Amino acid sequence: MAILDINEIRRILPHRYPMLLVDRIVELEAERIVGIKNVTATEPFFSGHFPDFPVMPGVLIVEAMAQTAGVLVLKSIPDRESKLVLLVSIESAKFRRPVVPGDQLRLEMVLLKRKHTVAKMAGRATVDGVLVAEAEVMCKLADKEETIPAPAL
Questions:
Q1: CA 84, CA 65: separation in Å to the nearest integer?
Q2: 12, 40, 80, 143: most buried, per Cβ within 10 A?
């Protein structure tokens, strides 16, 4: 059962297809969150990575972890509509086995440290209980107006 479905996630995160990489949130606590990403054969990255042996790019697994972390950070603030969560660092990333079409990624993120505008989280991605990737990510909370440059005149 989903705590947050895709429509609720879309109200929290600014990402949209094809870059929205979290389909639902199944667990949500103050310092821990679990997201699900259903990996389908129609994902746009599979046409080039690699056509004869489709593998989800590791950087997109980490991005899915970071988006799950972003839901936790944004869900906890009242003025989230005016904020963005920006990924500022990735540490200790390890990839244990390929993620392929048909897999369901379980993305578990645990808060390690949090200050006013910065959060560091440790994450694990599993498929059927088997560890496929892990990483620590740090994200920064920013005002949307400060992060989007004004158009040139």
A1: 16
A2: 12
pLDDT beyond 90 at 70: yes
**Interval 45-57: pLDDT, tens:** 999 999 899 999 9
| pLDDT for the residue 149 | 64
* Average pLDDT value over all residues in the chain: 94
Catalytic site residue from 10, 15, 49, 114: 49
The span from the CA of 58 to the CA of 2, in Å, is 25
CA pair distance 47, 74, nearest whole angstrom? 32
Q: What span, in angstroms and rounded, lies between the C-alpha atoms of 89 and 150?
A: 25
Q: Quick one: pLDDT at residue 85?
A: 93
- Cα 83 from Cα 101, distance rounded (Å): 33
Strands 104-114 and 32-38: antiparallel
Asked if 121 contacts 29 with a C-beta cutoff of 8 angstroms, the reply is: no
Domains and CATH numbers, the chain: 6-144 (3.10.129.10)
Single pTM value for the model: 0.93
**Active-site annotation holds for 49:** yes
